[in-house]
Amino acid sequence: MSIQIGEVIAVMGVEVSLRAYENSNLETHFYNGRRYKGVSIREFISIEHGFREIICIVEGEYLDERKAEQVGAQVRYERKLKARPIGFFENAKFYDGIKFLPKIGDPAKLLSEEQVNRIFERKANSDFVIGKLMKEEIAVSLPWQKLFNSHLGVFGNTGSGKSNTLAKLFTVLFDKKIDEIAQHSQFIFLDFNGEYTGEQIVQSNRKCVLRLKTRTNDGDKFLLPEEEFWDVETLGILFQATANTQRPFLRRVISEREKFRDYPESLNNYVRSIFERVLMSESPNPEALELLKSLSKNLELCKDLVVAIHNVGYNNRNPGFFYKTQHDSHYFSTGKNTYNDYFSELVEAIDVGEVGGFKELQCRAELKLISDILYGFAQYDHINPLLRRIEALKNDFSKVLAVGIETTNSKAITVISLRDCNQDVKKILPIFLAKHFYNSHKERVSNSSPPNSTMHLVIDEAHNILSQQSTREMESWKDYRLELFEEIIKEGRKFGVFITLASQRPADISATIVSQLHNYFIHRLVNDRDLALLENTISTLDSVSRSQIPMLPQGGCVVTGTSFDIPMLIQVDKLDGDKEPDSSDVNLEKLWS
């Protein structure tokens, strides 16, 4: 039995209108020893429809003016409610979705707290609790099996509790399931602000933390297998190579290296031959000469050779090379004579020593460009920007990436902190890391259907790398960056790859990526563009929940998506001081006291 508070007076599509009785105005009701909450916005009511109870959520209320028939009688007001069906009870079990609609005259009743609890009941072990329903103050267990088998989005303005929610989700998960997770899954956290490098999420001994730094030389390095480094896709990502000219050039560099990799002296012989071909060419090329000077410095060749090559000039009026001495200039009349006088012994003695990684890449790229220019295979102006980017970025990337034999990481959780990296590395490296882990995981599960393991990529402050508003990069590079993540989020699920995104500005992220997320934790957002994006991309977000997003308190969020029957307003529990991410507000009262 329950308290009847009204009856249905109109059904227009899925909008139900009810006339509320006078007793519905009370805040709390007690009936037969049970406590009932009164009718207000976002409260649940049941409408008896035969042997079923149709559950509706109240979305609005208003007063309808009615005058008595007698002349001079007082105006009488009736309270009207607007509600929307969300599911039904059958055999004491709640089913979500609109399968039945009420009829005019059906009685409306209040729901007891036990019935409200059953609406949010989950088949899970009822132990994955991150907070309470904001209005009902009922601890609700989230369906972790469905939640982490999907793409997640955590959105909210700064200070809204977004970082706490992200950390709470994974803290509770690892507290409950870390031993099982360690056997079958891998979690990668791309941490732009260094918020999860301490005891957050999981104990420090259960995770691998890489603190990458470009400002100093004492940071950790991400170890990259040699065969993966010498890959056109990898190098194209790191140095933003254009698709039509620079990537084919890198492909030729890699192919040439692969061809002669078994010959120890191949690089020395290559450098010697390039020196000879440039200085003895019958058609002297000033661009090749400048590249040769750059190569001699980058390879740190012997000082005498570096000085000698820098004393070579090019005469524009009478095209040809000349060699400057202290007292005179000697023209390369036939090329051979002057070369023999000043360079033959120095070139024969060239020994580049041990080079690897980024230094070898720069050396081989310069050698290949010189060779292509001499044979007319490449335009200097098209390829030179790539070489300049390699020269500008190699020092930074060599501080955070190491090329060598890959070692096995036995820990299931890896946190990669980019806090002490400059903007160039912060923009490029996460794209490369995402591709690395995605492709590696695909290879591991390629012969297993369904996948026998999962990989979860967690990107905090995702607008840093998924923005489609950036004007600091070429359009072709922006398209490649977004297409990579769109492929992961569209195709990754079949390989057991799942992404969790957290961002202050969801409108800055590609709408395609946001729309492919399955479940959302939405904290306070006040920007109209952010709210419009959510309205257009999240089909499960109802109008009442959306209207409350700009006014949510700190820690409060709307939870909606494919894993939830109806949107919920949850107040997420705050983590303990040593577990919360390093993103707390400054306490000015304590600081300035």
From TrEMBL:
Domain (Helicase HerA central) ranges: 129-279
Transmembrane feature ranges: none
UniProt cross-references to Pfam families, sorted A to Z: DUF87 (PF01935)
Domain of life: Bacteria
InterPro entries on file: HerA-like (IPR008571), HerA_central (IPR002789), P-loop_NTPase (IPR027417)
Protein name: Helicase HerA central domain-containing protein
Lineage: Bacteria, Pseudomonadati, Pseudomonadota, Alphaproteobacteria, Hyphomicrobiales
